[in-house]
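User: Just a sanity check before I run the rest of the batch. Below are the structure tokens for the first item. I only need the designed sequence back.
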């Protein structure tokens, strides 16, 4: 079912996506290939809508059904379709979204009974039913439980096209061998090819598409022409949805829309979430008296058809079922309670959007339509106004009305009389519960096989006989309804509220997000949490046969799943992602248990630092240098860094994804100052010595080295994408050993026969800037910058992004050199037949030898793309052509030598990761190669300093990147391959930059990041000396020293509260955090800040000029609240939500009651959805070419695939929704834009954090769409929220603030709040002037906006003054004749006339007194349309009013011009001696980063 969503209507898109038609190929040329599209079906496959309902129906019926029968009661109540745009609305794209939201694999609790079984099936955990064919694979179908209710009022069924049977497109991977698919996430939209349905694709078209392909990535070469048709099959499965009737005890029958690919269990899920059946968990479904099997697909059930009646039959309980039932009831009672989100449990996280939108946006849209100009209160709170100095913390988490939960019960807990004695077991007693009702009645309840009833036990007396009323109920809720009127009333209200919440507010996120602040919460009794804490609930073993999970087996089995076609790949990626997120959650819990001392070590007799642990089939080790393993590399410091390097290696090898090569599940957890590495366990590794098991690599850093042919073969396949050179080293017996990785990388064959690699900490080459080697001189760029510098450890590596960028840079250099020499030759001998003239003689299938790295696509999509491609092809032809033209061979050889290529016939740059490794020796025969490799490493180190860092600063000046906090700055640096240890160098460059003023925000963020990172390093060792009982006192003391102006804070030692009789003697194996040392208590602010400055100097080589926090704030313009946020996020501290008086000199800012919790900081692998990512990128590319509709369809398709792989919540889905919303907005569908953007905001809050810069962006977009939908007060409150968050995260002086204030000012102008509007607009003008320079067009626009407000206030002199400034800028920048200049000049005239008219009137009044006859003055209140137009302009959205015909012509013209330009350019390229570096065309900055890194196309107008 899950991919049956690629329904007939989507074939069209898929075919189009997959055959990337040249921009000019019109619809007419494409359609015939797929049979004519029905007239009613516009290119966007969406169900025809009633004119009245903006969102009736769903785009992309998922199973090809369009329901004409109105959805029945339950769905209305589930309120999944509120008002006009259901939260799942068309925006959910193909309703990849179920009515059942609490799906088993989205909520990991035990409450779902067997639900986890099918999920686990792909991982080889539970038997799959034999009939379950591939497409039924539960891992996928269950993935969304996707079920859609077309809304009541969808067009009548007549309008649903018959062609819409759902068909399953399995895109064969013919054009790509499994190997080739595994490059870095490509930039080129590399899509699986699909044979057209009738296969008669005209050759010419194929050629055209070939030509249109963008340059390929590493290892993603085109297939040979011969492989064209293999493996590309299209399977069409006729499958339509149908509805069944559900008969449940005690309620009216209702009907439910289902799809044949669903499993019976998914109906269970829906019933457990529906308002009227949610209290049932232990039931089965019967058809004609026969019980349906939980895991069978509906299509395999005999006699199940449209209108069949399914009866809900209550089943007898077992202990397990009774526990699941109690857990489910607890979840229903707690469904609105945010405490799990504040406590960071079960993947719950916070979301505050609904506080600002008053419920669902789609709904309020209708209500507020008529009230466009009704008075609304626009005054923002004081602290949001421009220039305000106060930065309160409390508004960060406003109190949500729903969180004052209705109390249904006072206590529900397990009774002390458990477990039942034998004689009661034989009466069917399973367990006893103890309940105190809201009316203070204490009752004891028996859970028996038949259901729940009251018994006569009391707290001190056991009497299992039934009490009166003798009422046996199959559900606990029904029993409680009987005995407590308050419960009955409140539970009903609670469930109503629960189903009204947006589903995105309650679905679990894939990885836990922790909140760094939380309000003071009442601690309530909670039987489920209490039970979780004291049973060894290792994984969620209630779910899983065989108790604890074999993580290694699951992780490796999912990797082995087939991946030949799209459905298989989706299934595989979904399984991989699911297991990874489960493993991460389990590893995190285990690591915390280890540090808290709750896990027994496997070597308990050794010293604490040396101990290792096994818990839940996961192996844990601490980040200390055990047995002097890292003695030569920096001891404990190296041991602390090694796990993250290793994790990066695992990430990389996983991304390359070579069949037959396995890595360990790896999670790195920092908690309470300790670093814990969690790894899955190789089968058999614990039974033998490491020495025996390692058959490849070295266990002693290169003394004894082994190799193995199978490992060499497997690693050889990774060498090209990872740029690793196959090389030889000497072992201790002076024998040559061949390796294809660093020596530390070990190969072990497990008992399961799999080839594992581990210890990948040196996957990438060393960073010579931080590795001084005696006798080796670095290039001048490095020495000028003060390198090499000795670092604390010798494990500094270059980042993968840097290696790729460097190779790409070398590739361009290689092309230039080759082209240059060839031109010279050609000039020398004209008579030779020139292959260069127009490249026709080159086969377009020729395989590039080593296409550029991931950034290549982004570099080459620009101007020089085809010119470079031709030169590249030339190089290949020469390489393939055996000596016919020795001179061209010579050219290539010279160019290869010049750029350090390892092959002399083609470009191929690779690194030897063992160069400069202490203890590694190379054979004599390789000395020359080693010399070249050393040079290459030096060049790479110089490239980082001379290209990447200046490039970053340049991007910041041009505002191509806009970091707002430490995390976004780090992200931007890492995308360019710059490690954080270069932060000091980046700041030095910013300081020396001529545009220092425009980099002010970068400087502030950088300094803040430098200070908080240095403080984090100190905090880490500080915490290691604190025992658990003194934790909150120690943390609050550290925060006081770090942030409070109070000169001498005193630490409260934890011994205050209790007097202990005698101090226990030191024990050897206490948990790592239990040293009784109170050294932390003597720290002073002066000492801490001195250490911070020293750390900044030693680590980042940057001199901070401050001795106290107040000096730092003063000197660098920082905010204490921002520093508090940064240090809390970096160290996992959670503090109380209240106003802190940082600046008080009379009392310290923090007390120990203010520190609520300390969370782990977790690093893990993020598995990617590759196919979805390609769709997303192709969609982006289409949008940038101006094909909005096609782009929209591709992105919808991407959204479906993302949902398939990740479930409902993920960062990449968020990026998808944002882009969709923007596209719908541009295409004029505001309701749809609103619905998608609302989801994007909710998801960003839940997955990235409520004040993450990305969330701030999403709030701004949503405000714009609200304004366009006439929801003015909502738009304002969203903008105020965004401004507050920006102030908290950074402060006022940020380029983004100009955009925000312009938005706020315009909306206030629209509601005629002129004075308020001016405050914001004038602030925006000041910020724009600072960051864009006084002559920039942005400043001109800002002047114009201010002038308009002054005009509305009738203050014409000020208006004229501002408009003149704007006019001058337009005139100097754009010239007299530009339309902007003309518009401005017109507006000036108009203002002048108004000013003159006003003056006349005034004079008239002075002359004639009040009796004067005054013509009424025309003051213009701005129209909403004009305000919206300006809002679109400042948010980078341009509309060009064009008819459909104009559009078609324009597209054709654009395409024709592009072809002409390309042809000319190729010719010029062939003749001109130098190939210039192409500009990157608005492609994502780094394809390896997530889509959200891709910039929103700032003006998705048609280009041309």
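Assistant: Here's the designed sequence for the first item:
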């Amino acid at each position: 079912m899950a991919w049956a969503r690629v329904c007939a209507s989507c074939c069209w898109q898929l075919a189009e996506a997959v055959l990337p038609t040249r921009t000019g190929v019109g619809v007419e040329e494409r359609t015939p290939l797929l049979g004519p599209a029905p007239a009613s079906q516009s290119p966007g496959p969406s169900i025809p809508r009633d004119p009245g309902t903006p969102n009736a129906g769903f785009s992309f019926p998922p199973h090809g059904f369009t329901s004409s029968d109105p959805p029945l009661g339950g769905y209305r109540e589930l309120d999944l379709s509120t008002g006009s745009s259901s939260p799942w609305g068309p925006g959910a794209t193909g309703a990849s979204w179920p009515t059942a939201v609490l799906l088993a694999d989205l909520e990991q609790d035990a409450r779902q009974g067997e639900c986890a079984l099918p999920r686990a099936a792909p991982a080889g955990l539970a038997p799959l039913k034999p009939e379950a064919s591939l497409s039924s694979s539960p891992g996928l179908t269950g993935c969304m439980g996707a079920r859609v209710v077309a809304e009541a009022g969808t067009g009548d069924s007549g309008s649903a096209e018959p062609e819409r049977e759902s068909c399953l497109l399995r895109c064969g991977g013919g054009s790509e061998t499994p190997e080739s698919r595994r490059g870095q996430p490509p930039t080129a939209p590399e899509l699986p090819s699909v044979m057209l349905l009738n296969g008669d694709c005209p050759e010419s078209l194929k050629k055209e598409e070939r030509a249109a392909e963008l340059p390929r990535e590493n290892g993603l070469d085109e297939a040979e022409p011969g492989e064209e048709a293999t493996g590309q099959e299209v399977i069409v499965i006729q499958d339509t949805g149908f509805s069944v009737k559900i008969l449940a005890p005690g309620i009216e029958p209702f009907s439910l829309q289902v799809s044949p690919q669903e499993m019976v269990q998914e109906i269970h899920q829906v019933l457990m979430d529906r308002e009227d059946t949610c209290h049932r968990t232990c039931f089965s479904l019967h058809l004609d008296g026969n019980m349906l099997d939980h895991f069978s697909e509906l299509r395999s059930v005999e006699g199940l058809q449209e209108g069949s009646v399914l009866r809900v039959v209550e089943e007898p309980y077992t202990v397990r079922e009774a526990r699941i039932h109690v857990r489910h009831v607890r979840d229903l009672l707690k469904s609105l309670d945010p405490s799990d989100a504040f406590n960071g449990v079960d993947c719950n996280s916070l979301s505050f959007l609904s506080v600002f939108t008053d419920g669902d946006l789609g709904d309020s849209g209708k209500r507020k339509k008529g009230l466009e100009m009704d008075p609304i209160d626009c005054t923002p709170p004081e602290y949001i106004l421009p220039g305000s100095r106060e930065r309160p913390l409390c508004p960060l988490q406003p109190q949500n009305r729903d969180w004052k939960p209705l109390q249904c019960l006072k206590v529900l807990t397990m009774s002390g009389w458990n477990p039942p004695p034998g004689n009661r077991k034989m009466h069917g007693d399973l367990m006893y519960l103890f309940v105190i009702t809201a009316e203070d009645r204490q009752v004891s309840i028996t859970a028996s096989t038949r259901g729940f009833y009251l018994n006569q036990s009391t707290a001190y007396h056991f009497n299992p006989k039934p009490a009166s009323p003798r009422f046996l109920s199959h559900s606990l809720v029904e029993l409680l309804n009987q005995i407590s009127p308050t419960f009955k009333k409140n539970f009903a209200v609670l469930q109503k509220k629960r189903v009204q919440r947006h589903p995105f507010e309650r679905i679990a996120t894939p990885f836990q997000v922790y909140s760094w602040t939380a309000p003071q919460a009442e601690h309530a009794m909670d039987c489920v949490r209490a039970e979780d804490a004291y049973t060894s609930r290792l994984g969620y073993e209630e779910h899983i046969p065989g108790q604890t999970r074999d993580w290694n087996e699951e992780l490796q089995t999912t990797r082995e799943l087939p991946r030949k076609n799209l459905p298989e790949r989706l299934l595989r990626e979904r399984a991989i992602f699911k297991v990874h997120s489960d493993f991460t959650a389990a590893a995190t819990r285990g690591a915390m248990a280890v540090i808290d001392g709750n896990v027994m070590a496997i070597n308990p007799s050794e010293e604490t630092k040396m101990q290792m642990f096994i818990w839940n089939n996961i192996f844990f080790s601490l980040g200390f240098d055990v047995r002097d393993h890292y003695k030569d590399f920096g001891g404990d410091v190296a041991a602390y860094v090694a796990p993250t390097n290793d994790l990066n290696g695992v990430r990389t090898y996983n991304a390359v994804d070579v069949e037959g090569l396995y890595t360990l599940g790896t999670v790195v957890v920092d908690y309470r100052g300790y670093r814990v590495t969690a790894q899955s366990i190789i089968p058999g590794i614990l039974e033998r010595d490491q020495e025996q098991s390692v058959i490849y690599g070295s266990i002693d850093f290169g003394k004894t080295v082994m190799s193995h042919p199978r490992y060499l073969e497997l690693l050889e396949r990774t060498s090209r994408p990872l740029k690793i050179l196959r090389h030889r080293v000497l072992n201790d017996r002076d024998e040559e050993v061949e390796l294809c990785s660093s020596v530390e990388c070990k190969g072990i064959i497990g008992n399961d026969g799999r080839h594992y690699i581990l210890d990948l900490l040196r996957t990438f080459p060393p960073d010579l800037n931080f590795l001084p080697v005696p006798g080796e001189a670095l290039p001048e760029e490095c020495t000028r910058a003060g390198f090499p510098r000795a670092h604390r450890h010798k494990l500094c590596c270059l980042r993968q992004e840097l290696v790729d960028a460097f190779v790409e840079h070398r590739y361009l250099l290689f092309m230039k050199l080759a082209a240059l020499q060839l031109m010279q030759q050609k000039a020398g001998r004209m008579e030779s037949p020139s292959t260069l003239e127009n490249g026709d003689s080159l086969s377009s299938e020729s395989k590039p030898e080593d296409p550029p790295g991931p950034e290549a696509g982004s570099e080459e999509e620009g101007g020089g793309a085809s010119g470079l491609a031709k030169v590249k092809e030339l190089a290949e032809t020469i390489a393939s052509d055996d000596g016919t033209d020795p001179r061209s061979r010579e050219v290539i050889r010279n160019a290869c030598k010049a750029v350090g290529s390892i092959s002399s016939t083609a470009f191929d740059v690779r690194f030897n990761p063992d160069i400069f490794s202490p203890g590694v020796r190379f054979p004599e025969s390789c000395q020359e190669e080693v010399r070249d490799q050393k040079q290459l490493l030096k060049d790479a180190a110089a490239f980082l300093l001379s290209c990447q860092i200046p490039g970053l600063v340049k991007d910041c000046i041009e505002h191509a990147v806009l970091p707002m906090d430490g995390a976004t700055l780090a992200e931007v640096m890492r995308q360019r391959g710059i490690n954080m240890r270069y932060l000091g160098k980046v700041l030095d460059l910013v300081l020396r930059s001529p545009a220092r003023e425009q980099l002010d925000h970068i400087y502030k963020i950088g300094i803040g990041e430098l200070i908080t990172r240095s403080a984090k390093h100190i905090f880490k060792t500080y915490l290691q000396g604190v025992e658990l009982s003194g934790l909150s006192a120690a943390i609050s003391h550290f925060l006081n020293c770090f942030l409070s102006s109070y000169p001498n804070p005193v630490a409260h030692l934890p011994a205050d509260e209790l007097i202990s009789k005698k101090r226990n003697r030191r024990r050897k194996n206490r948990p790592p955090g239990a040293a009784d040392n109170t050294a932390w208590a003597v720290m002073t602010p002066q000492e801490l800040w001195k250490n911070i400055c020293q750390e900044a100097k030693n680590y980042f080589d940057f001199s901070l000029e401050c001795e106290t926090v107040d000096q730092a704030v003063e000197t660098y313009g920082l905010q204490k609240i921002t520093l508090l946020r940064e240090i809390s996020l970096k160290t996992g501290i959670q503090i109380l939500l209240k106003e802190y008086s940082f600046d008080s000199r009379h009392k310290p800012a923090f007390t120990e009651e203010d520190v609520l919790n300390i969370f782990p900081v977790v690093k893990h692998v993020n598995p990617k959805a590759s196919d979805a990512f390609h769709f997303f990128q192709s969609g982006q590319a289409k949008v940038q070419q101006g094909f909005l509709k096609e782009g929209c369809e591709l992105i919808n398709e991407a959204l479906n695939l993302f949902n398939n792989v990740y479930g409902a919540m993920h960062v990449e889905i968020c990026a998808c929704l944002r882009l969709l919303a923007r596209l719908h907005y541009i295409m004029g569908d505001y309701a749809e834009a609103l619905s998608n953007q609302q989801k994007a905001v909710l998801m960003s809050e839940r997955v990235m954090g409520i004040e993450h810069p990305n969330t701030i962006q999403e709030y701004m977009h949503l405000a714009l769409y609200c304004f366009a939908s006439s929801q003015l007060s909502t738009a304002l409150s969203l903008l105020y929220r965004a401004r507050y968050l920006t102030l908290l995260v950074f402060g006022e002086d940020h380029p983004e603030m100009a955009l925000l204030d312009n938005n706020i000012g315009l909306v206030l102008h629209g509601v005629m709040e002129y004075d308020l509007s001016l405050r914001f607009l004038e602030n925006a003008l000041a910020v724009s002037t600072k960051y864009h320079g006084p002559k920039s067009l942005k400043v001109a626009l800002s002047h114009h906006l201010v002038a308009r407000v002054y005009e509305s206030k009738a203050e014409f002199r000020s208006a004229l003054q501002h408009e003149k400034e704007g006019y001058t800028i337009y005139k100097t920048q754009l010239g007299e004749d530009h339309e902007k200049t003309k518009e401005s000049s017109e507006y000036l005239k108009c203002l002048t006339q108004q000013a003159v008219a006003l003056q006349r009137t005034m004079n008239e009044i002075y002359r004639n007194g009040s009796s004067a006859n005054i013509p009424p003055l025309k003051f213009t209140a701005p129209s909403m349309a004009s305000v919206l137009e300006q809002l679109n302009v400042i948010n980078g959205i341009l509309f060009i009013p064009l008819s459909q015909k104009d559009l078609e012509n324009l597209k054709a013209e654009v395409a024709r011009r592009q072809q002409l330009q390309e042809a000319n350019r190729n010719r010029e390229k062939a003749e001109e001696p130098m190939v210039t570096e192409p500009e990157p065309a608005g492609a994502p900055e780094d394809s390896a980063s997530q889509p959200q890194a891709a910039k929103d196309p700032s003006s998705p107008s048609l280009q041309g």
